[in-house]
Write a structure and sequence with these properties.
Length: 485
């Protein structure tokens, strides 16, 4: 059988694009279901262990971004433009950089453990989960190769197997009452599965050694090219997670558990829009149009921004009004603080939608360095917010920190795009604003008459009915459905 070419040689049909997207979504769905079942079980089982695992997951997320170091962007570009026989060299030099970054990352984890004086149990949980995340950052190199070659189906199968085995192991060991340190091996199992199948595919497809000595000047070139993107991604994940570390100091691991209970219901919505819709659909679309049909960019950005605002509000409305019901159904009564925290955190959905859209626009427009400056400024303010708010206000301060940080980034990116490109006019946000105001007024009138749940349903039906019937006149066509694409 002839090896697959490393380069894309023909344009993709809409059906092929949707098929590839569907494969990745299926893997994401299995990951989401598995993680939800496992973490909810931990939350019911032992609040302290759940808090320790959530702390380690936050630290591991930061580590994985450091190991990935923004290398995805130059890696995809290099593989896509290279001949098949050059792909191993490209993959090897990226993996050498990533493996080189694993050591200082784990050293930083060890330093944190010693500085904070964590218990042996929490130290081992933190180290094992962080190592799993770091190794998953290495495995991502092979997945980038799959994506360029159009083998998202292979990536999806590997990720599904990894999710089933890792969360199955975690759930099984927790159900058997094994030590939490044993349970925390679930992330290492996920990483081991991904690396094993990634290496197996690499050897089969390229008949090459796993690691070969590269041209060190090319390694340095790739590292240097990825620095700006790496810093943007690393600082982004840092300012999303720092409040957890400050909360642990101020409220202990139980405080982290209560915050995580609310955050884990809100954050997946932001990820669905920012990583999967904006990152996988809109960003590639804008990147292509920037060079081929730049005049259409303004219309696409404007309609997507307006629709994201309009669609964010009903999601926020449901999570806010039904927070007591959702938290009460999902978590034990001990997590009652998560109810009011969820009402705070819903605002991060709207801010994440808009900030990620404008950040992608800046990257497409060649303003990555400016975006890095904004990210540095937001991270500095984030640390200030943590110092000023978390210790005196506790859990409330932790919620305010993430809201204010995302607000700062949204203001920065929106202001830049509006000043440079003039995407919006003064009245563009009038329709969604008025629709939200009218529907909130209707809800306040209905609630004492028909009780909470019926009022929520009626308000949603009114909002969505008006939005989809009349909205396209004011907001433009639905995202991703513009003519001529």
């Amino acid at each position: 059988m002839k090896p697959e070419s490393a380069a894309t040689v023909s344009p993709l049909s809409e059906k092929e694009i949707l098929s590839r997207f569907a494969h990745l979504l299926s893997a994401q769905g299995v990951e989401g279901i598995g993680s939800t079942i496992f973490f909810l079980y931990l939350a019911w089982l032992d609040v302290s262990v759940y808090g320790e695992v959530m702390y380690a997951m936050a630290a591991g997320s930061v580590l994985m971004k450091v190991v990935q170091f923004g290398l995805y962007y130059p890696l995809v570009s290099d593989i896509g433009s290279a001949e098949h026989d050059r792909a191993p060299e490209i993959l090897n030099r990226v993996n050498i950089i990533k493996l080189g970054l694993c050591a200082p990352c784990m050293a930083a984890i060890l330093g944190t453990i010693l500085y904070r004086g964590f218990s042996i149990q929490m130290s081992l949980i933190l180290a094992l989960i962080s190592l799993g995340f770091a190794l998953e950052g290495v495995a991502d190199t092979f997945f980038a190769d799959f994506r360029v070659r159009g083998r998202q189906d292979k990536e999806a199968r590997i990720k599904i197997v990894a999710s089933v085995l890792s969360y199955g192991f975690g759930f099984g060991t927790a159900a058997l009452g094994l030590n939490p340190v044993i349970i925390s091996l679930f992330r290492l199992i996920s990483a081991a599965v991904k690396i094993w199948f990634g290496i197996s595919s690499y050897v089969k497809d390229y008949s090459a050694k796993i690691l070969t000595i590269p041209d060190w000047s090319s390694v340095w070139g790739v590292f240097r090219a990825s620095v700006v993107f790496a810093l943007i991604e690393i600082l982004g994940i840092v300012y999303n997670k720092t409040n957890i570390f400050f909360l642990e100091s101020a409220t202990g691991v139980k405080g982290v558990a209560y915050y995580s209970a609310a955050w884990n219901l809100v954050d997946p919505v932001s990820i669905l829009a920012s990583e999967q819709f904006l990152g996988w659909v809109i960003f590639p679309l804008l990147a292509g149009l920037w060079w081929k049909n730049r005049q259409s960019i303004g219309r696409i950005v404007k309609s997507n921004a307006l629709w994201l605002v309009a669609l964010a509000f009903p999601i926020m409305f449901v999570l806010h009004t039904e927070s007591e019901l959702l938290i009460g159904l999902i978590y034990p009564t001990e997590y009652s603080d998560a109810v009011w925290m969820q009402k705070y955190l819903v605002w991060t959905i709207l801010l994440s939608f808009e900030n990620n859209l404008f950040s992608y626009v800046m990257m497409v427009a060649g303003a990555a360095t400016t975006l890095l400056g904004f990210t540095i400024g937001a991270t500095a303010l984030n640390l200030l917010f943590n110092v000023v708010l978390v210790q005196p206000l506790g859990l409330e301060g932790g919620c305010l920190v993430i809201i204010l940080t995302k607000l700062v980034m949204t203001v920065f990116t929106f202001a830049y795009c509006q000043i440079r490109f003039r995407f919006f006019k003064a009245g563009d946000f009038l329709f969604p604003g008025c629709l939200v105001g009218v529907c909130l007024g209707a809800f306040m009138l209905l609630k004492p008459l028909v009780t909470l749940q019926p009022a929520v349903v009626i308000t949603l039906l009114i909002y969505l009915g008006v939005l989809f019937l009349v909205g396209p006149r004011f907001l433009g066509r639905l995202p991703g459905r513009q003519k001529g694409q």
